Amino acid sequence: MPPTPTFRKTFHQQRNTVQIATNDADMTVCFESSRYKEHFVSGAAVVEKRSSTADIESVLNTLKSSTDTILPQITALTSGGTASDATVTPLISDLTAALDTASASLATLSPVESRKRQSDDDIANLVAGIVTDVANALDGLLSEASTIPDLGTLLAGVDTSLNQVLVGLETLLAGVLNLVATLLVDVAGLLRSLALGLTLASLGL
């Protein structure tokens, strides 16, 4: 009896590739896409781990650890009357870098499809707390604007970076910004005084 023929087919469609290889021993099917990979070997499937709300919360907790270190230093400058371009700029740069790092980390995750309302509430509270802390710390700089000529530019940078975090979060947890916005109604005035227009727009405030 002749051996079972071996064949391989490859299909290309947009960014997906499907390869099917069979022989008399087993069958292997691989599906690759820009979001996930699945491997089936001899009927057994192994699927890469999907992102969860815990993954998102981990990123945000890391961000909060950074802001908890940076923001008190900014507040100390304003309360001590030592705020200037030279003293404030490095701290604002650290703040935007922390926000950018969080955005980049969120971008590596996939949208969470199965989640609990309590998880959304926890994340919304965490994000609202970070935004509130940022707004309170930066608000103190407005009274020192005369000694910080570059303040407008610095705040614009924070707005851009903070907005990227919010946009990334909404991509992963659709609808969560509605919860965040509800928690930030009383902070909206501070955000407006700081001219954080992008952030306000994303929150719908």
Walk me through what this model shows.
It comes from Mycena venus. The chain has 205 residues and is of the alpha+beta class. The chain folds into two domains: 7-47; 53-203, no CATH class. It has seven helices and five strands; from the N terminus they run E-E-E-E-E-H-H-H-H-H-H-H. It has helices spanning 53-79, 85-107, 117-142, 151-172, 176-183, 188-193, 197-203, and strands spanning 7-13, 16-22, 27-32, 37-41, 44-47. The N and C termini lie far apart (75 Å).
Mean pLDDT, to the nearest integer, reads 84
Number of helices: 7
The helix-strand sequence is EEEEEHHHHHHH
Give the overall form.
elongated
Structural class label = alpha+beta
Distance between the termini: 75 Å
Protein name: Sc15 protein
Organism: Mycena venus
Q: Short summary of the structure?
A:
With 205 residues, the protein is α+β, with helices and mostly antiparallel strands.
Which characteristics define this entry?
single chain, alpha+beta
Task: Explain the layout of strands and helices.
Elements: E1 7-13, E2 16-22, E3 27-32, E4 37-41, E5 44-47, H1 53-79, H2 85-107, H3 117-142, H4 151-172, H5 176-183, H6 188-193, H7 197-203
Antiparallel strand pairs: 1-2, 2-3, 3-4, 4-5
Helix pairs in contact: 1-2, 1-3, 2-4, 3-5, 4-7
